[in-house]
Amino acid sequence: MFLQIKAEVEARFAAIESFFRLTKGFQGDEGATAKGLVFVQAYAAYEYTVSSVVRAAIDAIRTHNHRLQDLIPSLLALALDAELNSLRDGGERKVWENRLSLFEKALSKTPFDAAGNSVIPHDGSHFRYTQLQMIFRVFGIKRLPVRRRAHIGRINEVVGHRNLIAHGTEKASDIGRRYTRAEITHIADQMRSVCLLLIQVFDHHCVNSARHRR
Model confidence over 18-49: pLDDT tens digits? Predict the structure, then answer.
């Protein structure tokens, strides 16, 4: 699973590099637009990476046949997503019924089965660095989500610029004009590093089943 994700991510960043190389001779607004669009492309590769590694991790943990009663609490928050939503959405009449169901399942021998679970842990930041921290906390990964602290700001920068372009707040040329071509190349390289680390960390974490149990 993780090898396929890595291959796809490498291909996406190779495509970004190829695109940017072809625009080397662009001048004025065209050149600025080419630079700005790299933020959109890099963000797309990054969001794909985060979403894909979470789903792959769920599938990998599922293969260990953990019982819910044995899982670390943070993974229970993921495994019991439907039950937790019922507490919020079930209405006053079912509050206690849903509470009982939640704790009965949490302490049961029911196997962890989140196949097809499309839940991506989030904090409302739309893939900024704090969401990575939340995802690592849910899976019980006790390390920083980045190799270098400088990457923290870079993630937030790429997400922010992509959102400005995608929502029409600023044009790609407006963003691109603020950077040199060398800076854009460096940003793409940093985001590639972020993505490859995420794949590596989740692959390593999911192999050892003891990391998922209390």
Answer: 999 999 999 999 999 999 999 999 999 999 99
Whose CA is closest to 166, among 127, 198, 208?
Answer: 127
**Residue 214 and residue 109: Cα distance in Å, rounded?**
14
Q: Report CA torsion sign: 115, 118, 119, 120.
A: positive
Paired with 128 in beta bridges are none
Contact predicate 14/207, CB 8 Å: no
Structural contact between residues 63 and 102, judged by C-beta atoms closer than 8 angstroms: no
* Lookup: tokens for 52: 């894909």
Closest residue by Cα to residue 158 from 186, 119, 124, 197: 186
Cα 102 to Cα 87: distance, rounded to the nearest angstrom: 9
State whether residue 118 is helix, strand or coil.
Answer: coil
Q: pLDDT per residue over 51-77, tens digit each?
A: 999 999 999 999 999 999 999 999 999
CA distance from start to end of the chain: 25
Reference 17, options 209, 189, 200; nearest CA is 189
What's the angle, vertex CA 46, arms to CA 40 and CA 48, rounded to 5?
105
